[in-house]
């Protein structure tokens, strides 16, 4: 089949500037091509990338995009010209995958492909506008529930298909050779809970945190999705006030290097309480594939692959509790003995195997075929 994939206007593909959605669809496209399908991937231009090229059997077209801004309304306005430019270069296809806000409203020609809308960000009421979409695909059951609330009339079109891991699952993990590192890898942004994480780490008794290092890795610049200079400075000052070890690192966009960091860490903490900001938690799953034991907040998106005290630990936060749930959980996990840690680490690693690129890609291809066959039957009728 012929598959078009249209990314958003702000991050390049390959994902040299990060981005979970960009990383996932870059790899899924290559897996589709491996199965003999004709794939065209459209994304924004970026310095150092050719406007047209073929990578691993996938045809890449790059058009003028835009710089990301904080204002969500301006962000949507900036994306419209990009989608209109995409319309001019997009080839005919059977399936059109997109997460761009305007695409389902603008790219309505049947020849461009059946609309396969990837709901990669928390829906904010726009789904009811996407009546011509053949599928509204969500990465987690928690987001599926939100979609059903917002667009109940489109229930038959909503389906959960997860993100795949963005690297091969390590055949072997040195569970007993892990460093005493608690890792956070993600955007350095207020909504991710990193400031509260640092404040909580500072409050841990020294006898508990002794010998352990909390490492924060991720982009802090606004143009890369971070909280900007002012937030970084606030974070730095918080780190300086504490006596427990905290390391703030520069972002790592090279996936192989990020994987190395995760292979070394013992725990992966993801303290986000942004209910409207999380849809899956890919970095958590990636860390699990490297044998990290996850410590995550009680957001619904994590519950598809983390069960409390099975693959990892889930902490709860209620209004005004100053992250006491996180503090109690960290205090507990840092005192696990080697045997207990190894069991959790191994269980997390095994669970991640359900999300291999090959397995997840087949799920998408089966869904594409189902949509095409359904359309063919309707055409005959």
What's this entry about, in short?
By secondary structure, the chain is of the alpha/beta class. The chain has 12 helices and 14 strands. The protein has 2 domains: 2-164 and 356-380, Glycogen Phosphorylase B (Rossmann fold); 175-354, Rossmann fold (3-Layer(aba) Sandwich), CATH 3.40.50.2000.
How would you describe the overall organization of this protein?
The chain has 381 residues and is α/β, with parallel strands linked by helices. The chain has two domains: 188 residues, Glycogen Phosphorylase B (Rossmann fold), CATH 3.40.50; 180 residues, 3-Layer(aba) Sandwich (Rossmann fold). Helices cover 37% and strands 17% of the residues. Helix 4 links the parallel strand 7 and strand 8. The mean pLDDT is 94.
Cα shape: globular
CATH homologous superfamily annotation of the largest domain: Glycogen Phosphorylase B
The total tally of domains equals 2
| Lateral arrangement of strands in the main beta sheet | 3-4-2-1-5-6-7-8
Question: According to CATH, what is the class of the largest domain?
Answer: Alpha Beta
| Fold-level CATH name of the largest domain | Rossmann fold
Order of helices and strands: EHEEEHEHEEHEEHHEHEHEHEEHHH
């Amino acid at each position: 089949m012929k598959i078009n994939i249209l990314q958003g206007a702000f991050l390049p593909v390959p994902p040299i500037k990060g981005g979970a959605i960009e990383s996932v669809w870059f790899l899924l496209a290559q897996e589709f091509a491996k199965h003999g399908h004709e794939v065209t991937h459209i994304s924004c231009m970026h310095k150092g990338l050719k406007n047209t090229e073929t990578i691993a059997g996938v045809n890449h077209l790059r058009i003028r995009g835009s710089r990301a801004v904080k204002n969500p309304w301006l962000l949507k306005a900036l994306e419209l010209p990009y989608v209109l430019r995409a319309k001019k270069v997009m080839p005919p296809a059977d399936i059109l995958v997109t997460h761009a806000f305007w695409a389902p409203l603008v790219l309505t020609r049947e020849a461009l492909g059946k609309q396969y809308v990837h709901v990669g960000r928390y829906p904010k009421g726009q789904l009811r506008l996407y009546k011509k979409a053949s599928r509204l695909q969500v990465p987690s059951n928690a987001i599926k529930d939100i979609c059903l609330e917002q667009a109940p009339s489109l229930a038959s079109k909503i389906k959960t298909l997860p993100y795949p891991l963005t690297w091969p699952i390590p055949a072997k993990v040195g569970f007993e050779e892990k460093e005493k590192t608690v890792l956070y890898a993600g955007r350095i942004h207020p909504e991710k809970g990193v400031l509260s994480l640092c404040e909580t780490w500072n409050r841990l008794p020294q006898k508990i945190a002794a010998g352990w290092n909390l490492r924060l890795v991720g982009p802090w610049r606004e143009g890369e999705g971070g909280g900007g200079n002012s937030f970084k400075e606030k974070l730095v000052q918080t780190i300086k006030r504490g006596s427990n070890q905290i390391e703030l690192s520069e972002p790592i966009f090279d996936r192989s290097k990020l994987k190395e960091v995760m292979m070394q860490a013992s725990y992966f903490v993801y303290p986000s309480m942004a209910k409207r900001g999380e849809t899956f938690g890919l970095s958590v799953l990636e860390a699990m594939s490297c044998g990290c034991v996850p410590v995550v907040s009680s957001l619904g998106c994590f519950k598809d692959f983390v069960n409390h005290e099975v693959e990892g630990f889930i902490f709860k936060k209620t209004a005004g509790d100053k992250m006491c749930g996180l503090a109690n959980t960290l205090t507990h996990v840092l005192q696990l003995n080697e045997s207990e840690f190894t069991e959790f680490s191994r269980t997390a690693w095994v669970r991640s195997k359900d999300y291999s690129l090959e397995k997840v890609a087949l799920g998408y291809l089966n869904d594409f075929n189902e949509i095409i066959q359904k359309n063919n039957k309707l055409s005959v009728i």
